[in-house]
Every structure is written in C-alpha cells, then in structure tokens.
C-alpha cells in the first residue's frame, strides 16, 4: 500500500535519518516515538516533502503526492487575522476532489478572530479545517494532543481511532499510554534510525531502561 | 482560477487586518507614503528623491513579506501552485510601482522586478536563521532581531550607499536624512515585543539594569552607524561628526520606549521628528532638549508589554 525506500533524510549536510525501508500494507494507526530531537517530526515531514531526502515513497505503486495529506503539526500554521470561519473557507479553496464531511471534530465559535483565540482553540480550528474533508491519502498527527484540554484530547483520540479504521494514520506522541492500545505497529526513532518495535514489547521500557 | 482568486483574497484580507488590527496607524502611514511615492515617481522630478522613495517601497515590500506560510501552502497546493501564488501575490503588491516606472526607465524596471519580486520570493523560500554576531548577548533584543530578520539589515547597506552618494555630491541635507533613517531602523528594532517576565522576577536593581541597557544600545547603534561616522570624518568636519554622534546618543535614549512599546509607526515617527529637530539645533548647551523626546514618548506610548 505505502512503500518507503529512503536512503537518508537530511538538512543541509546533516543526516537526520538513514536507511528507512518500510512497507505499510494495512490501514491502521502507526505510532512513532522517540526522545525530543530524535527525528520523529523530520521523518513525518518527508510525506509533505518539506525536508530533503534521497529515496522514494510510493502509494499503491505510484509516486506519492504530498498534496492529499492531512497534516496536523504540533504548532499548526494559521492566518491569524482571519476568523475561524474564514480560515475554514480558505482551507476549502486549497482542497481538490475531496468530499465534504458535515461535522467538525470540535464545536467552537467560528466567528472569532484566530488571533484572539487561545493556543488550544487555534489548534482545534486547524484540526476542524483539515478534517472537514475525508479521503486523504494519508493522515499525519504530529504531537496532536499538545495544547488541548483533556476533554478535547479524548474527542481527538476517538476521531483518530475512527480514521485509522479505513486509512493509514501516522501519529507521534509522548503520551504513549493513551495511544499504545490502538496501534497497528510502533516505531522508535533513535541514533538516526527508525526501528520497528515488536507488538509485545512495552514502548515505555525504551525510555525507562536508559 | 476561482480557487486561486479566493486563496489570494484571504491572504490579502489577513494582511490588511494585520496592518489595521487594534491600531490602524501603520496602515494609514504606509498608505500615505505609498500615494506620495507614486505621485513623486510619476513626476520623476529628482533622481535622488526617486531613489529614496524606491528604498521605502523595498522596505514596505520586505515588511509585508514577513511570511511563514510557504510550507503550509506547499502542503496544501503542491510546490508549483504555492510558488505561483507567491509570485502573483508579489506582483499584485508591486503593480503600481512597476506600472509607473515601466514608462520611465526600462533598466530601473528590471532592477525593481529583481528587488520587489525575486528577492522577497527567495527570502520566503529560503528562510533560514543567520546571525550577525556583533550585538551583545546581554540584551537579546538586537541579536534576536538580527537572527529573526537578517534581511532587514539590507536596508542599512542602502542607507550607507545614499550617505556616500550624498556626500560625494555635497548634498548635506540628503546625508542627514539618510542618517536619520538609521534611527527609523533602530526604532523598528525597539518596536519588537519585549517579554519582561525575566526582569519582573529578577532581584536586579532597575537603575542598574536600565543603565546597562543604555550602554548596550549605545554600543549597538554606534556599530550600525560606524560607516556614516567614518564618512563624516572623511568628507566633513568634526562638528558634523559630533552632530551624528549626538543623534546616536538621542536614539540610544529611546531604548526604554521598548518597555511600553508603541506599535504605532506614526507615534514612533513623532519621536524621530523630535530627534531630528534637536539634532538640527545641536549645541552642547541645549542638551536638556533631550527631555522632550522622553516627554513625547511618555505621552504617546501605549503599554503593550508582555509578561
């Protein structure tokens, strides 16, 4: 389904990750873990092609396009002087051929100017804007729970689990306990390498033992 | 085509609100400068006035383009559509200037296209932090500004060039105007938001802290004014040198406005005009005239300090 054959991912002369050969055959939730600065976000950014890499990403045998990726970064970019509603509309104009989904993930006042919203509300607005559409090729959640309150975290988790039933969903998070039970596969980023962790191995031990 | 129009519509709406949010002073300031500039260029009365206005346009465009949306646009639209949006955006911003000068000078038009479209585009695509290491780390304001907006220092090179040109044709007035634009640049640095939580929780004495900042700012302003000072030594006399030094001192005093900061360019401009006025009356016995600078800023400042 999704094949990665990447020799290296790099910034300038610095290699961040190397020798990544992965094959994601099934839909499901795939977790990526590691310490701060280990390269989790850099790895995820290869799918939206905002980092340099040598190698290929194929989806169903064809070159992977970064356009139809639902990208939810830790700190999303927003045009802060638009209202939430205007940002939804703006996002809509950047989307092609994706059917509209009626419900937003979060219920927020869309008449507010984004500049005047809290960090959590801004993130909710961004998530609403992205997930108002379906049929993305790939969903990427990079530290999605940061900045959200507990209730919103559970709402988002439920949404992510629902999405993973029919899509490939990548997630990176430091809150391992919440997502570990739902993971199809889990990976650990360490020493410029991406290592698959066996299902029966508790990922927390990777941190605690050190 | 429709989506392209709508995307640009929202980008321009966001930019307009950014300029008018809470305080529409900046927008009107730019609008007035823009209209006067267009009028002046259309008559093309004086080569130097055209150059000065052109510098203002460059500044304005660079200032408008403090954008960090390329990655977002690239993710949403793909690399080529995102590039197309940015180029069209730049083109729309520059249309009046390009239109007017296209009738006047073809070579000038080419330079404009290079500066107004190509340069900001490259700056947007290749955003990287670079450092200008001369600024003291004791006061992080200048060093942070240098890392965040290193391209802002391009303006200084233009100012040095105008200073040199002014002196080489004995146009002292233009030299002083160019020197004062260094002050505008300094005020722009002082307009950066200041997070004062460190000072609030520190047990350092306020007087000592402020004197330390005064010295640091004085040193930083001397650094960026050094080429101008050198030119006064080479081309002018000791009185002119002292005058420029005096202006530098006046600018250093304004550093404390950061703590209240006024995010309104018009109000800032008042401060600048007072400095110019005082500098024109330069006399060692009139040093007390610095007081109005402080007074004007006390009256006009709008506290937006961040804790």
First-last Cα distance of chain B: 45 Å
Q: What share of the residues of chain B lie within helices?
A: over 70%
User: β content of chain A, as a range?
Assistant: 25-35%
Q: Which segments of chain B are poorly predicted (pLDDT under 50) over 5 or more consecutive residues? A: 300-307
Average pLDDT of chain A, to the nearest integer? 88
> What is the string of SSEs of chain B from the N terminus onward?
HHHHHHHHHHHHHH
Structure commentary:
The complex is a heterodimer of chains A (210) and B (307). Chain A is α/β, with parallel strands linked by helices and 210 residues long. Helices cover 26% and strands 31% of the residues of chain A. A six-stranded mixed sheet of chain A has the order 6-7-8-3-9-10. A four-stranded antiparallel sheet of chain A has the order 2-1-4-5, with no helix packed on it. In chain A, β4 and β5 form a beta hairpin. The longest helix of chain A is centred in the C-terminal third of the chain and has 17 residues, at 150-166. Chain B is 75% helix and 0% strand. With 307 residues, chain B is mostly helical. The model of chain B is unreliable at 300-307 (pLDDT under 50). Chain B is globular and about 60 Å long. The termini of chain B are far apart. Chain B folds into two domains: 1-127; 137-150 and 195-307, no CATH class. At the A-B interface, α2 of A face α1 and α4 of B.
Quick take:
The complex is a heterodimer of chains A (210) and B (307). Chain A is an alpha/beta fold and 210 residues long.
